[in-house]
Predict the structure of DUF6198 family protein.
Amino acid sequence: MNSVVIHKNTIKRYLFLCLALIVMAFGVAMSIKANLGTSPISSFPFVLSLLTPLSVGKATILLHCTLIALQILILRRRYRPVQLIQLPVAFLFGYLTDFAVWALQGVSYTAYWQQWLLCIAGIFLVAAGVSLEVTADAVTLAGEGFVLAVCQVLPIKFGNMKVAFDVTLVAVSCLLSVLFTAKLQGVREGTVAAAVFVGLLARQFNKPLHTWFQKHLA
């Protein structure tokens, strides 16, 4: 009986994770559509999509697969095979991102303030998606998984390593964009806003979402 309950709970958590991925994918797509800069984790896939035939979603899959491989190299025997669930999650998130970009292709704007509305909506959705992911507690996405892996082998706090990871992605994105397109793309004022507010908003969403999940789905 207990095993059946645990099985149902696991299914609910992964369904909740799928909802989180959908919400985040549309948040990323809105940020791209706003053209004010994407969130730090999405900046590299976006710039890569400008330089190669890859779509943003497929570039996202490539980044996540690379981060999964790096986790294995860093942790070696300490790497838990269950974390390989990150792989199908990466593919799902990548394809959902491409779908969201396609779904929003008809959205247009004529003013800077309208771009900001899209950007703010994107930040809100990414934050909500992150909170849903945390509430689901099913699997760590590749970005956070990489940061956690580094923290296991080096005396670095998660928060500090997360900031360093985001800054590195943004810096590499800026460098590639300037070198190969002769202008800065994918990193703008919206990137700074996302870096500041996604985490703050996600923390605000965490408690009510966790309470609702425990009451209705746990």
